[in-house]
Structure formats: C-alpha cells, structure tokens
C-alpha cells in the first residue's frame, strides 16, 4: 500500500502542514501511521478523511462540530444515526446560506442591469439632465419591488413545504396575508 508524506498530502489537499498536524492533534483525524523514522505516512483512507474534512470546513462547519463528527465516527456503527443528524443539520445551514447568496446575487445582477440601462440612456440622450434624487428614488422603488417579489417567492416555497392535510397550518398561512 502506497503512503504519502505530510508534505505530499499538503500539496495534494491544499492544506498546510500545520493544519494537518492540528487536525490530528485535535482529534479530527485518527493518529496517522508513522514510518520507523517517526515521519507521518498517510494512507488513501487518511487522505479521503482529510478531503471530507476540507469540504466540511469549506461549507462553514465549525471545528467543534467537525470534532463531534470525528468522535461519532470513531464510535462506528452505534453512532451512524447521530452522524447523519449532524450532517443533516449542517446541510440545512448550507442550503440557507446558498439561498441567501442566490438572493444577493440576484440583487447584484439587477443592479448591473440597472446601471447598463442608465449608461444606454445617457449615451443616447446627452441632453438628458441627470437628477441624482430622481434616480435614487427609482432605484429604491425598484429595490423594494425586488425584495417584495423575493418575499413572495419565499412564501410560495414555504407553502409547498407545509403539509396540505393540516388545516390548522393552512389557516395560519392564510392569516399571514390577511393582517
């Protein structure tokens, strides 16, 4: 079985040697096998775990949760459900963050389109007197319309998720719009 040195693993994963040692020292990784010289020798299984940890970290999972996941992993079959629940909770956070990023991206794209429109209008009509206050009001109104549309889309998504058989939740959903 081929193994890699800590330098090779650092190059392959993009982590620093310090981070790899930190992961091992703080229980994120099982103790790595050592050569007779005392140097770490990483197996393919070690590298797969490191790559998974890297993905968890890249999605914003705090080190403490990663440590909890590693602890549960060491418990083997008895903790499969707990590992799944931890990952499901993190998945929900990642999904919420993705949705927030999409919303922010849409606003940026709208703003880019708005500025392109301003540029086109000013290029075609050089005599147009630019009114900063007027343009600001238009921008605010368009921004409010955009945010209202986003809120309505979110309500539509929530309505799809709510159970259809529960009449109490349906009446609660309707009351949101009546007030």
TrEMBL record:
InterPro entries the record matches: DNA-bd_dom_put_sf, MerR-type_HTH_dom, MerR_fam
Keyword Hydrolase belongs to the record: no
Entry keywords, A to Z: DNA-binding
Domain annotation HTH merR-type: ranges: 3-72
Matching Pfam families: MerR_1
Segments of this protein annotated with the region Disordered: 158-179
Keyword match Metal-binding: no
One Gene Ontology molecular-function label: DNA-binding transcription factor activity
Superkingdom of origin: Bacteria
Signal peptide start and end residues: none
Protein name: MerR family transcriptional regulator
């Amino acid at each position: 079985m081929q193994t890699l040195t800590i330098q090779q693993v650092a190059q392959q994963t993009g982590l620093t040697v310090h981070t790899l040692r930190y992961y091992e020292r703080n229980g994120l990784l099982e103790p790595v096998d050592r050569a007779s010289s005392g140097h770490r020798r990483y197996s393919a299984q070690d590298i797969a775990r490191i790559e998974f940890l890297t993905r968890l970290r890249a999605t914003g999972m705090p080190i403490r949760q990663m440590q909890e996941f590693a602890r549960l992993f060491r418990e083997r079959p008895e903790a499969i459900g707990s590992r799944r629940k931890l990952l499901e909770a993190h998945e929900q956070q990642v999904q919420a963050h993705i949705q927030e990023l999409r919303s922010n991206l849409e606003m940026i794209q709208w703003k880019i389109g708005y500025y392109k429109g301003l540029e086109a209008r000013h290029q075609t009509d050089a005599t147009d007197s630019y009114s900063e206050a007027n343009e600001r009001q238009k921008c605010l109104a368009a921004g409010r319309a955009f945010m209202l549309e986003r809120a309505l889309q979110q309500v539509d998504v929530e309505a799809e998720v709510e159970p259809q058989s529960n009449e109490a939740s349906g009446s609660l959903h309707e009351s949101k719009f009546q007030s």
